[in-house]
Known about the structure:
The chain has 175 residues and is mainly β. It has helices at 41-51, 129-141, and strands spanning 2-5, 11-14, 20-23, 26-28, 31-38, 54-58, 64-65, 71-73, 79-84, 89-99, 102-103, 109-111, 114-126, 143-144, 153-156, 159-162.
Amino acid sequence: MSYFTDESGRLHVVDAEDNATPVFAKVSGGVLHCMVRCTDEATFDAVGLSVGLLTHENEGSAEVLDEEGNVVQEAVAPSGAIIPSKGNTVTRIGPHVITPAVLDEDGNELVPAVVDSRFHANFWIPASSEWEELIVEWANHGTAGASNGSESAVSHQGIELIDPLSVTTPHNVLL
């Protein structure tokens, strides 16, 4: 697979048959950047673990058998904190303030903030055909997500991939 960015900044992934699929992600310097949100952090962790974005601090190990099929070493389940897999960067944002609160000169709240209470995260991963295939799957099999203001998103496996071109004020960027 390959990719290109069109004149508007939209990323397109090109398959072996030269079919270009527009996707909600950015690639810069060989790094794929995605902004996502979902109902809660547990959903993000479950999907992140299943696709290899995340791993457990202690990865665990498979059962070891001898030539006769006897267990030499029991399997050890993964454990510990859930962290980004090697080479990946994940920023856990959590709830997102859509509109900040309005305060008076004494700091008293006049108008409460508008908050999207869903879990938000950004991630940066090495651009590779494996991940390009995943975001193409998201684009081709996802459904329209709920928007915040001008934002657009596509939902797949319980996670919404946010269109970076629709975000007017990103809250987390790597320089």
